[in-house]
Design a protein that fits this description.
The chain contains 15 helices and 18 strands. It is of the alpha+beta class.
């Protein structure tokens, strides 16, 4: 993972002759028409141009099965142009090839080689001064920024009609991430933040991604490996990693270690205050062990089974990420056409079900590499398959005994077949629907239930795939009148994901009973109150909250009322009498629902927090969600694992 802030260094070692040339050069650059606002505290406005509703070309996907298409982003996008202008100006003024980027730091001295190894003379100097170290933010939009080492990438170019061309990896990774965010926000019915802020950072050619694309749980940044260029241009790969970042922003505690010191007990919640966290009624009887799950803070453990190192929620995390990738692919009408054409022939394997077809074409994935998903499979050009085929029979056995990516195929298989089942029901109930319209509507229904389901997940880090399936069914029950829960139940259980739990059912019954208590009705001041997130990045955060000297009550006007509500009703809600938590976040969604999150940490992102309480209310202010948990603190220096 790359650390530290990116800075533009303007320091150059020059003599008097070259100083005059550089003065003319920067004057030339300053004449460019650019946005009056920069995109960061360490970047100048002149480094970027703003494009309104740019058009970006997607390359063909899945070996041409999905053709190239033009994608217009209906938003303002900022494109880096300083490096391009510098190189052009250098050539115009010096009459020689432009300098290479400095490789030994922003203040590096010595000769700079021009392309081909030649040294470019300038104004009588033996060699030109080093080029300024340019911050590698290539492009930035409302929710995404993409970084790449300028030495290893072509420039981006803005055409007269707002067409952005150039670096294919940067452009396609950026467009996919922006589209994935917009899709998730639409399905979730609200805005949301990433662990490190309102924007998601995608780093290309990141040497820290030595084993493949991954997402950092500490800041939600996506890293793409330098030797796999197809990773950035494959929408399935980018949207999968984006799915991880979305869930990390909503439920950061899932990346913490297990509460069990016994590997055999992973996945069970012996010290949880919420019986819903158990996969079945017998789980709550497992005695509590001491300490955290062994080695669960080691990034290398993520690819191990949960009973030997990976966090218990790892398989669920992978399932959510793959499901996000599937939903994103189904936004493309060309992908939907492939699905409907295959279904008409009775075939369920298609472009959508085969995740990461483009990435799977990379020869290195098929070499004798122990890190490869398919190390023994020889590489064959023009194969039409993905890293995972959701139409294939899912694996059997408990998820805790399998590597998370393998175990997650249980949920994603059920999720994919849920889309097909809802599609079939829609077509049967309304024959006037075209095959594309029915599949698009089915995608929207199932996608909405998945993303809204995030609000109904347990707070425990031991959350599993069964919890995610039940959260989807709860969203369907609340928002669609349980029209599709029977299909979800059938598809998930056929894929070996348990949807029944006596403990869960008992907790839900208790919550419904509490929701009928008028005394627990959420006050209108909170139901209509301004959303907030204490001390954390948020698109809806009060600017006053960024000032540590501003009182909490002023920075977050609704927070004191939320604290008071819990203090007054803790015993009625069945919470421990010693519950000592404060409101850290409150948000509303498109269903008129309000969710309030409490912890005893400084913010929801604070990994030292040990208590969680979440309350959810419908549009009438009646309680619909009650989740609470107690998890262990991390040992000093211990960090959650990294996902792939």
């Amino acid at each position: 993972m790359l650390e530290g802030k990116l800075r533009i260094a303007r320091t150059m070692m020059v003599d008097c002759t070259s100083m005059a040339i550089l003065s003319n050069l920067f004057q030339l650059m300053s004449q460019q028409s650019v946005s009056p606002k920069g995109i960061g505290p360490n970047r100048d406005a002149g480094d970027y141009a703003t494009v309104d509703s740019p058009t970006i070309t997607y390359d063909p996907q899945a070996n041409g099965l999905v053709p190239s298409r033009q994608e217009t982003l209906h938003k303002k996008v900022r494109v880096m142009n300083a490096n391009e202008q510098f190189m052009k100006g250098w050539k115009d003024l010096a009459g020689a090839p432009g300098p290479q980027s400095a490789t030994s730091g922003p203040h590096a001295g010595g000769a700079q080689s021009a392309p081909g190894g030649a040294t470019a003379p300038v104004g009588g100097m033996a060699s030109p001064p080093p080029a300024p170290q340019v911050a590698p933010v290539q492009i930035e939009g409302d929710h995404t920024r993409v970084l790449r080492d300028r030495e290893n990438a072509p420039d981006l170019h803005v055409g007269p009609n707002g067409q952005i061309s150039g670096d294919r990896g940067v452009l396609q990774a950026f467009t996919t991430a922006e589209n994935t965010h917009d899709m998730a926000a639409r399905y979730m019915g609200r805005n949301f933040s990433y662990p490190d802020g309102d924007k998601l950072t995608v780093k290309l050619d990141d040497p820290s991604a030595s084993t493949g694309p991954d997402t950092s749980p500490t800041n939600g940044e996506i890293s793409m490996p330098p030797d796999e260029p197809a990773a950035a241009t494959d929408p399935d790969v980018v949207s999968h990693e984006n799915g991880h970042a979305i869930l990390m922003g909503a439920r950061p505690q899932y990346m913490r270690p297990s509460d069990s010191g016994n590997p055999a007990d992973s996945g069970n919640p012996p010290v949880s205050g919420n019986p819903r966290d158990a996969g079945n009624a017998t789980d709550s009887a497992v005695p509590a062990d001491s300490g955290a799950h062994p080695d669960s803070g080691n990034p290398a453990d993520w690819d191990k089974p949960a009973n030997s190192g990976a966090p218990p929620a790892a398989a669920m995390h992978e399932a959510f990420a793959d499901s996000t990738s599937l939903l994103n692919s189904l936004q493309d009408p060309n992908v939907r056409k492939d699905v409907t054409d295959k279904l008409a022939r009775g075939v369920t394997s298609n472009v959508a079900s085969n995740l990461a077809e483009g990435f799977n074409q990379m020869p290195s994935l098929h070499e004798q590499n122990p890190l490869s998903p398919q190390p023994q499979k020889p590489w064959t050009p023009n194969i039409h398959e993905g890293l995972r085929n959701l139409a294939a029979p899912p694996p059997k056995g408990p998820e805790s005994s399998m590597e998370p990516h393998k175990a997650s195929e249980q949920f994603t298989s059920g999720f994919y077949h849920s889309v097909l089942a809802v599609n079939e029901r829609l077509r049967a109930s309304d024959p006037s629907l075209s095959s594309d319209a029915a599949l698009k509507k089915a995608t929207d229904i199932v996608g909405s239930d998945l993303m809204h389901g995030v609000d109904f997940l347990p707070e425990s880090p031991n959350t599993n795939q069964g919890d995610l399936a039940r959260a989807m069914m709860k969203a369907d029950n609340l928002h669609h009148g349980a029209q599709y829960s029977d299909l979800y139940k059938k598809c998930f259980e056929k894929s070996n994901v348990p949807t029944q739990s006596a403990v869960y059912d008992a907790q839900e019954a208790a919550t419904r009973k509490l929701g009928q208590n008028p005394a627990l009705t959420l006050p209108s001041s909170l139901a209509n109150g301004e959303a907030f997130r204490v001390n954390g990045p948020s698109a809806y955060q009060n600017p006053d909250a960024r000032d540590p000297d501003v009182p909490r009550s002023k920075a977050y006007p609704a927070a004191p009322a939320a604290d008071t509500y819990l203090q007054q009703h803790a015993s009625q809600l069945g919470l421990p009498t010693d519950t000592d938590v404060r409101a850290q976040e409150m948000y509303h969604n498109d269903q008129g629902e309000t969710f309030i999150y409490y912890s005893n940490g400084a913010s929801r992102d604070d990994v030292s927090a040990t208590h969680y309480v979440e309350l959810g209310f419908n549009h009438d202010g009646h309680l619909i969600q009650l989740s609470h948990a107690e998890v262990p603190e991390l040992e000093p220096g211990q960090m959650p694992g990294t996902t792939h």
